[in-house]
Amino acid sequence: MTTTTLAQFNAASPQEAAQTLRPCLPIDRWIEEIVSGRPYDDIESVVASAHLAASPLRPDEVDAALAHHPRIGERAAGDSREATLSRSEQSGLSIDEELTAALRAGNAEYEARFDRVFLIRAAGRSTAEILEQLTRRLSNDDETESAEVADQLRQIAILRLQGALSA
Ligand SMILES: NC(=O)NC1=NC(=O)NC1=O
């Protein structure tokens, strides 16, 4: 994970600053709002700006961003920054056959119900907890679930941003 210092981020060209943000959340409007808020006094201010720009995320923005997330339990292929991040976020998942099979079935059920990949902030969560969340969210109505997906996406973006910037 290459980190950028806050000073470098503030001093970079808009294009370079955008490159730091894109693997966190590939939404142009979100990236541009944060880039245009530079210079920031501290990382907390960048995070606050990122949170504001992601509240709310439009449904079309969420759908576009989801395309960059592999299924939970499936290893992201390739060596892009996003794939590397995704693999590290999912590194805590269990290799227990039963849990893995249940997760695979849950993903399929979720995709049949909501017609998109199940997205959850995986960092810091066990497979059992992810399964629990998946099961709970399966009974959400569409509107509630759309809001939950946007919130998970925002959490992943903020975690990635905090990992990408160093003081
Ligand atoms: N389908 C997913 O939830 N994917 C992911 N969650 C994360 O926290 N990182 C991912 O790639």
Report on the architecture of this protein.
This protein is mainly α and 167 residues long. The protein has helices spanning 6-11, 14-21, 28-36, 43-53, 59-66, 81-89, 97-114, 127-138, 142-164; strands spanning 4-5, 165-166. The protein contains nine helices and two strands. Helix 2 (14-21) crosses helix 3, helix 4 (43-53) packs antiparallel against helix 9 and helix 7 (97-114) runs parallel beside helix 8. The radius of gyration is 16 Å and the shape is globular. 1-(2,5-dioxo-2,5-dihydro-1H-imidazol-4-yl)urea (2AL) is lined by residues 69-72, 86, 89-90, 117-123, 156.
CATH homologous superfamily annotation: Oxo-4-hydroxy-4-carboxy-5-ureidoimidazoline decarboxylase
Helix and strand element order: EHHHHHHHHHE
Structural shape: globular
Number of extended strands: 2
Biggest sheet overview:
2 strands, parallel
Reported by name, the CATH topology is UraD-like
CATH class: Mainly Alpha
What binds here, in terms of ligands, is: 1-(2,5-dioxo-2,5-dihydro-1H-imidazol-4-yl)urea
In the CATH hierarchy, the architecture is Orthogonal Bundle
Give the helix level as a range of percent.
55-70%
Mean pLDDT: 94
Summing up helix and strand content along with how strands pair, one would put the structural category as: mainly alpha
Task: Report the end-to-end length measured between terminal Cα atoms.
Answer: 15 Å
Instruction: Report the C-alpha radius of gyration, rounded.
Output: 16 Å
Instruction: Extract low-pLDDT stretches.
Output: none
Helical segment count: 9
Counted up, domains total 1
